[in-house]
Amino acid sequence: MFAWLANPARFMALSRWLAPLFGAAAAILLAAGLWLGWTAPDDYQQGATVKIMFVHVPAVSVGMFAYVCLGGMSFFGLVFRHSLADAAARALAPLGAGFTALGLATGSLWGRPMWGTWWEWGDARLTSFLVLFLFYLGYMALQAAIDDETKAARAAAILALVGLVNLPIVHFSVEWWSTLHQGATVLSPGGAGLPAVYLAPLALMGVGYIFLFLSLWLVRTRAEVWRRRAGAQALAAAAV
Q1: Does residue 231 sit within a domain?
Q2: 190 in the Ramachandran plot: left (φ > 0), alpha (ψ -120 to 50) or beta?
Q3: 47 pairs with which residues across the strands?
Q4: What does the pLDDT read at residue 234?
Q5: How far, in Å, CA of 91 to CA of 85, rounded?
Q6: Is residue 111 situated within a structural domain?
């Protein structure tokens, strides 16, 4: 499948209609999720603060999912020298960083009334998720710091692959260490621990975030392909 999509012409033809389709699906799902979340009753312990999870949990999940995609694209770009994989990885990094930053910000907003603090360095989930954000920033910084795009892509790809080690730490941190952060609720071994009134909007928001991410990723990758084509044409014209 990837080999078929690695052809830029095929990718551009397919993404031309997939991007708006994913965007429309995201708009519908997010609108429905926000409405159900807004009208959901306050929690008996957390009050209205519980509604932050409808934004926070999907943002955290997509931030991690995006890094898995970044690692995959980096692997294909580094090992198989696929230029489209490099373009996709470069287009993806700011999106992943944005979702991760949103997860950090909303987590802090939830933590202040629940834990009495905006941030707790002793919490392994918070700290490891911050490290994930720093890997995104490091990837983008490497891309910007090296003038040669080929060398920049290779250096950034290596950093992205190293950063994959942090993902299981983020995921299992609440099980490996004693932290303030709560464990899995939706995907817990005993089944979903949320009432349907909260689970339904959370599920809609989660799927909506995924479609939003995919739509934006396709749009940004298309823009990156066009940028590279324009640069190649400019070099060819200058050589004449």
Answers
A1: no
A2: alpha
A3: 43
A4: 79
A5: 10
A6: yes
Provide the H-helix boundaries in 40-177: 53-79, 83-115, 124-145, 149-163, 166-176
Question: Per-residue pLDDT for 1 more than 80?
Answer: no
Q: From CA 135, how far away is CA 2, in angstroms rounded? A: 25
Query: Is 214 inside any structural domain?
Result: yes
- Nearest partner of 11 among 229, 230, 225, 232, judged by Cα: 225
CA distance 120 to 33: 30
Residue 26 falls inside a structural domain: no
pTM over 0.85: yes
**pLDDT for 232:** 76
Closest by alpha carbon to 163, among 57, 58, 64, 61?
A: 64
Angle between helix axes 53-79 and 8-39 (nearest 10 degrees) is 170
The domain total for the chain is 1
Structural domain of residue 67, as residue ranges? 51-225
Predicted local confidence at residue 182, as pLDDT = 62
CA 143 to chain centre: 18
d(CA 63, CA 76): 20
Report the length, in residues, of the chain: 240
Q: pLDDT digits over 44-85, tens only?
A: 777 778 889 999 999 999 999 999 999 999 999 999 888 899
Structure confidence by residue, pLDDT tens digits, 199-228: 999 999 999 999 999 999 999 999 999 998
